[in-house]
Amino acid sequence: MELNLSVMDDLERISFLLRGLYQDHGFSRYRMSKFEEYDLYSRNKDFLMSEGVITFNDPSGRLMALKPDVTLSIVKNGRDIGAGLRKLYYHENVYRVSPGEEEFREETQVGVECMGQVDGRALSETLRLAADSLELLSSRWVLEISHLDILEALTDALAAEDGMRERILACAGQKNLHGIREICREAGLAEGAEGSLLALLENYGPPRKVMPAIRRIAEENGCGDAARELGQILAPLMGSGLEDRLWVDFSATGGLKYYNGIAFKGFLEGIPEPVLSGGQYDRLMRRLGRKDRAVGFAVFLHRLERLNREGGHAE
Amino acid sequence: MRREGTESPESMLNVALPKGRLGEKVYQLFAEAGFECPAVLENSRKLIFENPEAGVRYFWVKPSDVAIYVARGAADIGVAGKDILLEYRPDVYELMDLGIGKCRMAVAAPVGFEEDGARTLRVATKFSRIARDYYAGMGRDIDIIHLNGSIEIAPILGLSDVIVDIVETGTTLRENHLEVRETIVPISTRLIANKSGFKFKRAAVERLMKGLGGQNG
Q: Among A51-55, A171-175, A199-203, A289-293, which is the least confidently predicted range?
């Protein structure tokens, strides 16, 4: 009996298309248990996208959790390989309370993790794969990309303590430039001290338009290496036909305890929240005792339920 | 067929305005910035108005709901008080401080009230999160009493020791024998945008911001 593909709904079709894409790019399937010891999440609470975790005691009395996240489990259960790359993809359910919501939800995500000797080429390929994932879903997408080392350097130049740093980064994520001015004024910084950070945040858009200014700002603030690295990571994507839908945008932030280097988020027209989120997480690897470098992203399938299929390719 | 760039072919900019005098004032600012839709100010029960020529669609919503419409993408942009943004923390861009609707979030208590640091402080408020964050920053043990209105009567009736609420002129406080003890944060009206909508209607949003004299203009 042949498999009747018409029985699949849109989300099932999309998940298989994404899995096929990742498999074609040399990623192998990673399967995991639905449960993990709660301790892993309590020690890395800020990493979670969830405001809560469903816990229970297993028969031996250990406090367990229904997974609110996939990456933490992959990092914890993996081993360093040093040279080369370990490329994994997953298709898993997670259990979360999203910020602003009050109920737990089961959410499905498909994603990739690339660990090992993650160099500029691996980062470019991951960005390209993220762009190809969005292209598979719709022709109307934007992938915003930032480099957290640049954002961190410019923020640290202003913030004397962690609380101020977090407030500035929160404002950066909201394109709230007046908020950053206010924080710096309250802290008694010299007028205009925040100028470089504001200029960085104001320069968003396709790389060919904004990268010259970003390189200049980064050079002037002692983080030219990171801007050059960002340029090199983006270079292979220029001329691909996708470049107008890549936005360099430093409002794409991430928790600096876990993330470093490039961070990115994918948006589809008509879907109010990002449908894809990813970046480098070498710092998370170090926190969990790993030496390898790592980059990855997830596509949030539950956010695609209202996708207007007219512009999509998933059919 | 592929469309060039990321600008949406749907030219309408969807704007959620807060019902009331503040919303009318905001509309005037938007109209002066080139996003006119005169029907908005007509005295009718209609809630949605559009002007295809100016590429704008306005709708009136309850002020505390504006951020929900924007975060959920029903509106591309909206206008909300900083109090609402601090209390509900919607995942939106906060693009401009419009400098109107100025007031402050404050702690107020009956005139002559002396706080007993040895007892849990009972705080009546509509803004539980703001109050909790404020007192947590001071390490103060509090009991939040969430109310939806007439906050000022809570200390008079012995329901709470203090209140955390918006103070504009202070007249209501004075009339109820209350006084401001601390200002928590200044409040004003902000232009907010949906993070996804902004990507696809960037030109229109930036044109509006430029018209409003904003930072990206």
A: A51-55
The full length of chain A comes to: 315
**Residue B174 sits at the chain A interface (C-beta within 8 Å):** no
Torsion of the alpha carbons at A32, A36, A39 and A44, rounded to the nearest 10: 40
Q: Which amino acid is at A68?
A: P
A97, A178, A271, A305, best to mutate vs chain B, most B CBs in 10 Å: A178
Whether the CB-CB separation of A110 and A19 falls below 8 Å is answered with yes
Contact B44, B25 (CB under 8 A): no
Q: What is the Cα–Cα distance from B69 to B81, expressed in whole angstroms?
A: 14
- Give the model confidence (pLDDT) of A104-152 as tens digits: 988 999 999 999 999 999 999 999 999 999 999 999 999 999 999 999 9
- C-alpha separations of A298 from A94, A111, A119, A258, A313 in Å: 12, 4, 20, 16, 19
Are B178 and B110 in contact by the 8 Å Cβ rule? The answer is yes
From the list A276, A285, A311, A302, the residue with the least C-alpha distance to A126 is: A276
Q: What is the DSSP string of A97-154?
A: --TT--S-EEEEEEEEEEEES--HHHHHHHHHHHHHHHHHH-SSEEEEEEEHHHHHHH
**What percent of chain B stands above pLDDT 70?**
94
Residue B71 contacts residue A272 (beta carbons within 8 Å): yes
Residue B71 at interface with chain A, using a CB cutoff of 8 Å: yes
Whether A240 and chain B come into contact, CB under 8 Å, resolves to: no
